[in-house]
């Protein structure tokens, strides 16, 4: 029998927003981390999605988990004695839910992005200051071994002081297109890809170089998807010449799921929800409650986000970032180049080198979340390489440890920090990977500034956004308090640790929320 002194304390968790992404947290609580975490409540406005997750919990032996609607969030926290609320709802709802959960007495774990606006940043910062409670950002890409190794190289001083970073991210025509089917396609919901997707990337750069953005200039537009693009016009002309009707507003068509849309076979741009049992359960069978259509046509009207983006970001200690995102590439992955005063580091990642479709015209939506789903090829093989070259020396390859699970191996390690930190105490991490809400503010600061720059055509000074908190990162060793890393259950710190010299030291679902 386990003694009282060794019995782990189980924290009580509620999950808010029961889309596809939330299954990673639900599975972790019910499975690997069940000895330290207890699922005590769901918060979800859609009865069908609530029922789906209630059934999952019951099948795992968790009993009948009570369900609540968002308007009863405070009541749920009080009645179920919730310690931590996990928020995986659409981006535009994050700020208010974080604010309400903190004020009701719970800590918060929130999916990226933290919020989509400067007002949201101010709201969350005020709530943290007034409640003393903590907000943890789940920046899983920090935990991917390839990204951690680049952090280690930079922080070791091997390439000297960073002078510039070039970051190119390519989303392919399966994963990239999916953002233009769902709620993300409207900027009022997601902040656009500059916030929803790129906050991952901006956080990586902020963390890699230990600095905060100062000024942002952005250009971009909707050039591939939507009803007015060259691609859409060419397709419409070809359809008209063939005597075909206009494209339907959604992808789900034939009852057997073998055709992308009614009356036409093999449309690679459509998503038939009936071909995926999980998507059908969470969205197709649930849409009569709230009208949310998960499979909208990517060439339909109403898209207000960009699919091509380029940014120039000045950092406070002098480094410059050039960043680009393309959401209609033939392959998926990213390239990062970090230039320093002593040399250069180059990271190249291929998450899917080409798109292979099955007999139903389907492919894995998010290759970064499903390792092993794509076998690769000889020309553009799956994998990652990190190359470092100092001035006057030959280049060398840096060994990258194998990752386990989704997002480059980051999800599994992230979940250890999210759920195990309360049991083991605040473990020091020489890489400073755990992220607090200030890291979330730094990441969205680039996207919020970029969106403002897209409108004005001018550079935007980040401090003029009035984010409600000073996001400056002190130089290494400037403040002792910076050594205290934020965890899910310690007091928040406005500073992310920067370590000048470092010692050698389950399947994730698609990134979709309710």
From TrEMBL:
GO terms for molecular function: nucleotide binding. It holds the Pfam family GFO_IDH_MocA. Signal peptide: none annotated. SUPFAM superfamilies: Glyceraldehyde-3-phosphate dehydrogenase-like, C-terminal domain (SSF55347), NAD(P)-binding Rossmann-fold domains (SSF51735). Residues 490-514 are annotated as: Disordered. Residues 151-348 form the Gfo/Idh/MocA-like oxidoreductase C-terminal domain. Residues 12-137 form the Gfo/Idh/MocA-like oxidoreductase N-terminal domain. Residues 490-506 have a biased composition (Low complexity). InterPro entries: Gfo/Idh/MocA-like_OxRdtase_C, Gfo/Idh/MocA-like_OxRdtase_N, Gfo/Idh/MocA_Oxidoreductases, NAD(P)-bd_dom_sf. Belongs to the Gfo/Idh/MocA family. This is Oxidoreductase family, NAD-binding Rossmann fold. It comes from Sanguibacter gelidistatuariae. The lineage of its organism: Bacteria, Bacillati, Actinomycetota, Actinomycetes, Micrococcales.
């Amino acid at each position: 029998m386990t003694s009282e002194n060794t019995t782990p304390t189980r924290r009580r968790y509620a999950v808010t927003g029961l889309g596809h992404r939330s299954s990673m947290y639900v599975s972790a609580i019910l499975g690997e981390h069940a000895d330290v975490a207890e699922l005590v409540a769901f918060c979800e406005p859609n009865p069908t999605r609530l029922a789906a997750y209630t059934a999952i919990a019951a099948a795992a032996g968790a009993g009948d988990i009570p369900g609540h609607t968002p308007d009863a969030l405070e009541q749920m926290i009080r009645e179920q004695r919730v310690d931590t609320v996990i928020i995986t709802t659409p981006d535009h709802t994050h700020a208010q839910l974080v604010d309400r959960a903190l004020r009701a007495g719970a800590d918060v774990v929130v999916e990226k992005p933290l919020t989509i606006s400067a007002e949201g940043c101010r709201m969350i910062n005020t709530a943290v200051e007034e409640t003393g409670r903590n907000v943890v950002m789940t920046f899983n890409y920090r935990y991917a071994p390839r990204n951690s190794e680049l952090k280690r190289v930079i922080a070791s001083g091997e390439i000297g002081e960073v002078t510039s970073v070039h970051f190119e991210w390519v989303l392919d025509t399966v994963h990239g297109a999916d953002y233009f089917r769902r709620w993300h396609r409207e900027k009022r919901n997601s902040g656009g890809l500059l916030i929803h997707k790129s906050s991952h990337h901006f956080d990586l750069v902020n963390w890699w170089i230990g600095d905060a953005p100062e000024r942002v200039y952005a250009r971009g537009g909707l050039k591939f998807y939507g009803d007015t693009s060259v691609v859409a016009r060419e397709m419409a002309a070809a359809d008209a010449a063939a005597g075909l009707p206009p494209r339907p507003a959604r992808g789900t068509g034939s009852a057997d799921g073998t055709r992308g849309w009614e009356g036409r076979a093999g449309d690679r741009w459509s998503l038939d929800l009936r071909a995926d049992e999980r998507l059908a359960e969470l969205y197709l069978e649930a849409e009569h409650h709230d009208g949310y259509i998960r499979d909208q046509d990517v060439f339909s009207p109403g898209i207000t986000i960009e699919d091509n983006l380029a940014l120039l970001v000045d950092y406070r200690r002098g480094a410059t970032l050039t960043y680009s995102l393309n959401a209609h590439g033939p392959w998926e992955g990213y390239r990062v180049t970090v230039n320093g005063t002593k040399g250069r580091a180059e990271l190249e990642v291929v998450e899917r080198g080409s798109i292979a479709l099955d007999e139903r015209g389907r492919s894995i939506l998010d290759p970064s979340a499903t390792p092993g789903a794509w076998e690769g090829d000889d020309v553009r093989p799956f994998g990652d390489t990190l190359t470092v070259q100092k001035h006057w020396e030959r280049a060398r390859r840096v060994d990258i440890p194998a990752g386990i699970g989704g997002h480059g191996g980051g999800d599994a390690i992230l979940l250890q920090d999210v759920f195990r930190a309360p049991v083991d105490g605040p473990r020091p991490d020489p890489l400073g990977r755990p992220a607090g809400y200030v890291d979330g503010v730094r990441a969205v600061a680039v996207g919020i500034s970029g969106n403002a720059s897209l409108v004005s055509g001018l550079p935007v000074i980040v401090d003029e956004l009035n984010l409600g908190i000073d996001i400056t990162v002190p130089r290494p060793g400037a403040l002792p308090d910076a050594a205290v890393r934020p965890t899910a259950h310690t007091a928040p710190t406005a500073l992310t640790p920067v370590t000048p010299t470092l010692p050698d030291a389950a399947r994730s679902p698609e990134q979709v929320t309710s």
